[in-house]
## 1
Amino acid sequence: MAYSFPEEVLEYVFAFLSSHKDRNAVSLVCKSWYEIERWCRRRIFIGNCYAVSPQIVIRRFPEVRAVKIKGKPHFADFNLVPEGWGAYVYPWISAMVRSYPWLEEIKLKRMVVTDESLELLSKSFKNFKVLVLSSCEGFTTDGLASIAANCRNLRELDLRECEVEDLSGHWLSHFPDNFTSLVSLNMSCLGSEVSFSALERLVSRCPNLRTLRLNRAVPVEKLPNLLRRAPQLVEFGTGAYSAENQTDIFSNLVEAFSGCKHLKSLSGFWDVDPAYLPAMYYACTGITSLNLSNATVQSPDLVELIIQCPNLKCLWVLDYIEDAGLKALPSYCKDLQELRVFPSDPYGAEPNVSLTEQGLVTVSAGCPKLQSVLYFCRQMSNAALITIARNRPNLIRFRLCIIDPQAPDYLTLEPLDTGFGAIVEHCKELLRLSMSGLLTDRVFEYIGTHAKKLEMLSIAFAGDSDLGLHNVLSGCESLRKLEIMDCPFGDKALLANAAKLETMRSLWMSSCSVRRCPSSNVEVMDERGHPDSRPETCPVEKLYIYRTVAGPRVDKPNFVWTMDEDAVLRLS
Amino acid sequence: MERAAVYDNELNLKATELRLGLPGADESEKQSSRNNKRSSAEMDDSRDKDEQESAPAPKAQVVGWPPVRSYRKNILHQKNESDLSGIFVKVSMDGAPYLRKIDLKVYINYQDLLKALENMFKCSIGVYSEREGYDGSEFAPTYEDKDGDWMLVGDVPWDMFITSCKRLRIMKGSEAKGLGCL
C-alpha cells in the first residue's frame, strides 16, 4: 500500500514514545508497525526474568541499547525466598554479549550477579555506560574492580542495597587515571574502606559528577575535601557522620556545604553526632529529598534539620521523629509528596518511641501533595484511616505496617476493615497497597469493589476464607502483582480465577492453605520435599505463579517444583 | 492456667518442644496459634500488663514479619565499628542434603538466630543452658571458630560469637553430648 508513511518517518515518531506501554501498544497496530517498532526499540523492560528468555527478546528486538530486568519476587527482601532459588543474570549477559555489542545500560533488581558476569560485561560492551544494581547479590568487590578497570566510558555505577561480599576497598583504585566520565557513584552498601586519596583524585577529575553516595567507612573528616572538589554535586550521601572531638571539622563542613549550591538530595548519616548536623543547614534550601533512615538521632535534632528544607518532597526517616516531629511537617515542608517512616526497633516487645497513628494523620491533613506513604507503627484505628483517606484522596501508594500481626483497632478492638475500605474507596488512583492489622474477608469485599486502579497488593495474616482472595482476583481489574503471606486462602479462589492469573505478572502465596495448583507455570517451593510426598491435606509451603512465554525453567534448584497440567489432573 | 497458655503463645514454646512427627507437620497447630493470637488481642488491659512483666523477651518471630530489610533490622544495635557488609556463614545440618548460607549480622541475639535456624531447617533445637548445653534436644547448634575448634553455640557473648564464627553445623543431639560437658 502506498498510503502509509515511509519507515523513517514512523521511526522518528516512535522515538518520542518513551513509555514501554505505549511502545507495546504501537507494535500491536499492524504487522508493518510491529516490524518497524521492533527494529527501533532501544530500551527494554523485563518485569520478571522468567517470563521470557534472552533468546526470545533478542530475536524480537535486535538493536537494544538499554535493558532493565527484575528477578526475585518482592518478598525475597524479607528472606522468604530460599537461597539458590534463581534469578541469575549470567545467561542474559552472555546472550547479550553475542547480540548487543553496543549495549550501554543494564539495570537489575533482585537478581543474582556473579563476578564472572561483571567481568564478562566489562570486557564485552565497549560503549558501556550505566550499571544500576538494586537489591542484587552474588558478587564481590573483585567484580566491581573489573567494572572500574574496563568500562572506559562508564557514567553510572549505582549499587543500591546490594549484598556484596566485601573483600577489600581496593576496587575503587582500579579506575584508570585517564577515566573522567563518571556522573554517578553510589557505593553506600559497601563495608570496606576505599583509598581516600584514590577517591579524592577520582572526584577531582570527573567534572560531570553529580551523584556521590559514600559508604559508612568514609569518616566525616574526609567530607570537606570531597565536597570542595565537587561543588556541582546534586545528590550526596555522607558516610559515618560523627568524629572524635576535632574542632576544625565543623567549620570545614560548613564551608564545604555552603559551596555546594546545587544539592537536591542528601542521604547516608550513619552514626550521627547531632552537633554536626547544623553544618548542613546552608545546603538545605534546595533539598527535595532527604534520607535519614540510617540516622539514629533523637527527635529535636532530627526535626531541626528537616525543617530547614522548605522544598522537601521526599522524606525517609526512622520512627525517632515521633508524632511531635511529624506535626512540624505541614508547617515547614508543605510540598511533601513521599513519606517513609521506618522502625528503629522492629522486634522490641514494647514501643521505644512515641510514634502512633496520629503522626500520619497530621501529615495527611497538612501536606496536600502527599501521595506516597510507607509507615511502620504499633497502633492504628479505623477512625484514623478514615480520616487519612478523606484528607488525602490523591494517595497513590499506601503501605502500612502495624508491627504486631493482626493488631485490631486499638480503640474499638474491631478489625481494620472499614479503615482500609475507606482508603480504597476515597483514593481512586491508588496503585499500590500494603495492609496489616486485624482484617477479615470484609476488607477484601471493599478492595474488590473499589480498588480498580490497584496494581500491587500485599497482604499478611488477613482474611477468613477463600472468599477474600476471590474478591480481590475477580474485582481488581488492574492487578498485576499480588503477594500473600500467612492467610487462610486455599485452592478454590485460585481455581475460580485461573484466567485472571494470566493477566497478572505474578502471584506469591506463602504459609497459606493451597494444596492444588490451578494451571501450569506454577512454582512450588517446598524444602520438605516434593508435594506428592506428603499427605494430600498438607498445604504447600510457598507458591509462586507467573505468566511466561519461556516454558518451564531450566535452572530450578531442587526445592522448586513446577506443576504441569498432568500433575494437576493426577492430584484431582 | 489461662495465663500460662497466653504466655505460651507469646514465646511460642511449642515450637521448641521435642516431639515425634514429620517436619512441617505442625500446620494445624500453627493455625490454632494464629486463632489464639486473635483472641489474645481481645483480652483486657490488666492481663496484658501481667504478660509484659512475665514475658520480657521479644515476641516469637515469624519469618518475613515485620517486613523489614535485613540491613535495617539492627538499627538500634548498631555500633560505630560495625559496617553494613554481612557476616555470611555456611550452615549445615546433619542429614540435610544441602547447605544454607546466613548473614549473622541480621540477628540480634542467640534466640533470634536459633529461631531462624529452626525455621530454616524445620528442626527443634531447644533451649541453651550453661551446664547442660542443649541436652535433651533433637539437635544442637555448633560452630567452628577462628581457631578451627568446634564450639557449642551459646557459650560466649553474642558479639564475640558473631566475630569468631566461621561456619555453623547443626548436629544430632546424641553427637553433641561431648561438647556440652567439660
## 2
Amino acid sequence: MSSLRCFQRLKSVFCVQVNSGVRRISAAPSSVQQKESLVTMENPYKEAQKGCVLCSITVDYKNIQLLSQFISPHTGRIYGRHITGLCGRKQKEVSKAIKKAQAMGFMSVTHKHPQFMKDPNICGIKLLD
Amino acid sequence: MGVLQYPPLDNFTGAMPRYELSLILKAMQRPETAATLRRTIETLIARGAVVRDLENLGDRLLPYKIDKHNERHSRGSYFLVDFYAAPSILTSFLDHLQRDVDVVRSTVLKKDDRVSSSNCCGPQQ
C-alpha cells in the first residue's frame, strides 16, 4: 500500500508537464491587423510640377521685347533650349515667332534693339561684358 | 445696317477665316498715310472682306534697311488690319499691295483663335 503511494508521489514528481515551458501562441496581436488594412494615398511629399518661364504667357510675333530676351545682344542669334530653359513647346513657339518677326520687318536679325538691352536676363547665360 | 454677325457668314463661300495684315508704310506726311490706308481698306472691302479692326503700332526706325520700289527705306509706319475674308481673294490682294508704291512690306497671316489650349508643362493654376 505504501509503495503504491510512494509510486504515486514519484509519478507526480517525474511526470513533468510538457506544456508548461512552451509559450503559447496567442491570437494575432492588434498591430498585425493594422498592417493588412493600409491607407493608400498619393505621395504627400510630392513637389508641385515646375513649369518654364513662359508657361502662362502667349507668345506673339508683335511682342518684340519679349522675343528679344531670347536672343544674343551681340549677334542676334536665338539661344538654344539649354540656355533659355524653356520647355519644348514654348521654345518652338518663341523660335518661330522670332523668325516671323524678322521676316515681316518687326525685329532685327543681326542685333538686339538697343532699347531692350537693359532688360532682365531670363536666360542662364553669363555674357562677358 | 443690320446686326453684324461674328464670324461673318458669306452666303456664297461659307465661313470666312480671320486674317491679320501687318502693313509697313513708307514714312510720309499724315494726309498721305491716311490716303494710303483708305485705299488699302477700300480695296479689301471691294473684294468682299469685312474689316474688323485697324491698329496703329506707331512710326519707328525699321530694324534693317528695306529696298522697295527703287527706294531705300529706313523709317516706316506700322499698321495692323484685322479682317475676315474669303481665302480666294488673298493672292490678288497681296498682288495689289506689292504694286502699291507707298507700301514697304505687307504680310497676311491667319489668326489662330485657340491660344494656349492645353496645359503646357505647367504648374496647376
